[in-house]
Amino acid sequence: MSTNPAFLMRLLASSFAIAEKAQTIIHRVLTRGDLNIVEKTGANDLQTKADLLVQQSICSSLARKFPKLTIIGEEDLPSQEIDEDLIESGQSEEVLKYSCPAQFSHLKEEDIVVWVDPLDGTKEFTEGFLDHVTVLIGIACGGKAIAGVINQPYYNYQAGGNAVIGRTIWGVLNLGVFGIEMKEIPEGKHIITTSRSHSNKLVNDCISAMNVDEVVRVGGAGNKVLQLIEGKASAYIFASPGCKKWDTCAPEAILHAVSGKMTDIHGNSFQYHKDVKHANTAGVLATLRNFDYYSSRVPDSVKMALIP
Fold first, then answer.
1. Active-site residue among 48, 117, 120, 122?
2. What is the mean pLDDT of residues 6-30?
3. pLDDT tens column, 262-290
4. Annotation marks residue 51 as catalytic
5. Which one from 48, 51, 168, 193 is the annotated catalytic residue?
6. Is 45 a catalytic residue?
7. H helices within the chain, ranges in order?
8. Residues 6+ apart with CB under 8 A from 218
9. pLDDT tens digits, residue range 239-265?
């Protein structure tokens, strides 16, 4: 462990511990069975007690330790006293074993914007598709996603026996990704992962143009990007404006750290400045490899319908 870790590594080490705390909170809510499900904008845009408690935990824990951070979370939270049981003050010593990439070693709290999705895949969570759920903590600087933490609270939950439930993955540009084994789809195989609950004609038209072998419909942007890294899909395509910056910041950083690529449907990079609009209005296109193949096949009709 470095005797004086760079701020980014300390932030990641804390975010790792906070994400593991989030896993515990999510498990507790589901076990008690009191989800308090609320429709935000419709039946496919839900909020549960777990969303609220986890966001309180992540944002309050980070703000208490790093008061100059800008933190943007998905949920609108009322001003209230935070239950101390939600606060995580620890850090991952494993993360601190690694040296910060030189170009990020000078970063300070005020340089960073943290984008938080406390429970990515809420609809799937309420319907029992627990392996789709992730907790996302994305770290951006200069408008770019540079690091991230993804917790899968129910990873391995169907394995049985003495299987460890849940895992936390973290990564930094020019350092790498840890906590997951990378695999690649066989050359020439085209498997598309896309939304399970937000499909429409544009999404389907875009996928139809890709000469696909298989379409995998699952919940959660974080889950889809992990599918790319683990060789379960070759492209993540979402030709719709429903995705938000807190959905993509952590997954983009993780994907880019293994030399993948994520943009909107037009090939434009996402921006994560604190004042940027939250919606990714021009959809999402992401791959681990062969980005140009998929990008070149996006129909003009889809591009015209999705305005950046």
1. 122
2. 97
3. 999 999 999 999 999 999 999 999 999 99
4. yes
5. 51
6. no
7. 7-32, 49-65, 122-127, 201-208, 221-229, 245-256, 291-296, 300-305
8. 124, 129, 132, 193, 196, 224, 227
9. 998 899 999 999 999 999 999 999 999
